[in-house]
Amino acid sequence: MLSRSAVGRAARQSWQQQRRGLAAPASGSFQYQTGEAHGVKFASRDIPGPVGTLAIVSQAGTRFQTAPGLTEGLERYAFKNTERRSTLRIQRESELLGSQLQSYHTRENLVVGAKFLRDDLPYFAELLAEVATMTKFRRHVMNEEVLPLLQLDHKRYLGNTLEMAINSAYGVAFHRGLGVPLKLSSSTPITKYLSDSALADYAASAYAKPSFAIVGNGVDHGELSKWVNEFFADVPSQPLQALKSEQTKYFGGEERIAHAAGNSFVLAFPGSSVPTGSSYKPEVSVLAALLGGESTIKWSPGFSLLSKAAQDAPNMHIATKSNIFSDAGLLTIEMHGSASDIRSTAGKVVEALKSVAQGVSKEDFQKAKALAKFKELEYGQETQAAIELTGAGLVQGNKAYQIDDVAKSMDGVTEEKVKQIAKEMLENKASVSAVGDLYVLPYAAEIGLNVYNRYLAVAARVVRRSLKEDKRIQAERRGEMDMRFAKWENGKQGENKSLAHANDAAMAEHAAQ
Amino acid sequence: MSYPTLAPYITKRPWLMRWMRPLSEWYFDNAGYRKLGLRADDLIPEEDELVQVALKRLSPKEAYDRVFRMRRAFQCSLAHQLLPQHEWTKSADDYPYLHPIIKEVMAEQTEREDLESMVINKRKAAKKPASAGH
């Protein structure tokens, strides 16, 4: 398929890039160049290689949708028939050129894009413009092609306890906006809200100039600028309905859902926003790496705090993730496995978090920082994540996601900061969600988590801090005390035990029987 | 299947259309289906895959009205009666509601057949610019 001139051009480009890469001290070609044509924002980075990616990143994720299910509907309706081409024609043409069409959504963004051979950029720029502005929303296409897929997706969601628990934790944490489930969690959207006209209205908002940005990877910036200028001229300049969502507020609480298919347990704490957002805290991702759970080494549980805590339950899946959004974030610790395993481990997980709030060993901290930096850079280097982060950054703040800055801010994290953030998390109201066998799965209060108001802790701390130095130290020691007990046997005092721990152990034993 | 028609030929020529319009009005009034409350598109034979697909794409309201008209006409036919004159289909109401959908389905089908029988030729190197392939 490649002609000689194309190969020649690609070779020349990659040679030029290599020279540039050698001359620049840092990873220069990872920087995004930004631009604007007809009010449409776009960014690109020209990574050497024969394959390019182009995507529309629209601020139309589940957070911004005006009615439930619209984001999912729009995602599934991408690349269906337009004014100029039919669905089949789009499929066949992109197959002939050798490409991959993709559309997916996250809580904040809807990404519609394609991967293709470098030379086919004009075709795909035109195709994306057509998808954005000329899609024909027809009822029979909805009925025949879109809704059946959504129904299957809904069924799949209902069978997956971990996904349910994660979405429920988001709901508990943020209520509306970011708390809206990522997938259809009931059939109401299909029966009540999803129609061709509602979808057409939402598309007119999602694909208006202020709501989306175009991001290219492995495409020449000048070329992209030219084609965006040509094809995206008649995009509506104002959204039909402004896709605004208020500043996210964290609530927290607990939700328990009975389910027969599996057991999942999710603990969530307020986290960090994206690097381009307002409340960016790089220490959260270091804390996530420190807690960990999933090993990066094959056949070994790894050295992270949570993998140590879950040593007795090797068949349980446990992972910590720092999920970042434009103006808020959520640190989630997910557990998935047998109910008794979850029961016995959940308390230890909270203990691990408390131990971080007390202090971290230097070595552990260094390991976690290195891992967090690696993960962040690896994530940002991959085109998929970089495209979404850059697009969202452009739409919301006119800033592209620059991988070098992120690495720099990660270097500035200190042990003190991680300790502080862990302490804040424990003082805040946690979001806890349990899906599965509710008889065995623990309540948040049983594993020693704060689910009542932060007020008490804050008030107590303020009072203590206002004391004089010597009294304050005494009082603060008292604040960190928790319930301990010792069993007296044969007239002798037994070992001092934490009440929460002993309680968990007893319950786990009971559940196992 | 749709029926053969001269209509596109005639509508393209306004002078011919002026001549033909009264004739067509007279013809359709005398065809008799309007006196049973039917529309021209109700007479398209249903026993065809294309028409079946097109019928599924009617909006719920149109599909309901179509069934209603047919049952009413069937009832009239059994009773050997015509509808009262104020219930006859007016020529303004006798618009093609099914025909455009059938045409669309046909176009889809022909496109699919065309693409299915397409022969792919490899691009000749260095002759044409690389992006001229599609």
Write out key terms for the chains shown.
heterodimer, A: 513 residues, alpha+beta, six-stranded mixed sheet, five-stranded mixed sheet, 19 helices, B: 134 residues, mainly alpha, Cytochrome Bc1 Complex, Chain F, 5 helices, metal ion binding (chain A), proton-transporting ATP synthase activity, rotational mechanism (chain A)
Characterise this structure:
- The complex is a heterodimer of chains A (513) and B (134).
- In chain A, 48% of the residues lie in helices and 17% in strands.
- Chain A has 513 residues and is an alpha+beta fold.
- The N and C termini of chain A lie far apart (65 Å).
- In chain A, the strands form 3 sheets. In chain A, strands 1-2-6-3-5-4 form a 6-stranded mixed beta sheet. A 5-stranded mixed beta sheet of chain A has the order 7-11-8-10-9, sandwiched between helices. In chain A, strands 12-13 form a two-stranded antiparallel sheet.
- Chain B has 134 residues and is an all-alpha fold.
- Chain B has one domain (12-111): Cytochrome Bc1 Complex, Chain F.
- Chain B has 5 helices and no strands.
- Chain B has helices at 7-11, 14-31, 49-56, 60-78, 99-116.
- The radius of gyration of chain B is 22 Å and the shape is flat.
- Chains A and B meet through helix 1 and helix 3 of A and helix 5 of B.
- Chain B: Keywords: Electron transport, Membrane, Mitochondrion, Mitochondrion inner membrane, Respiratory chain, Transport.
- Chain B: It is a peripheral membrane protein.
- Chain B: One of its GO terms (cellular component) is mitochondrial inner membrane.
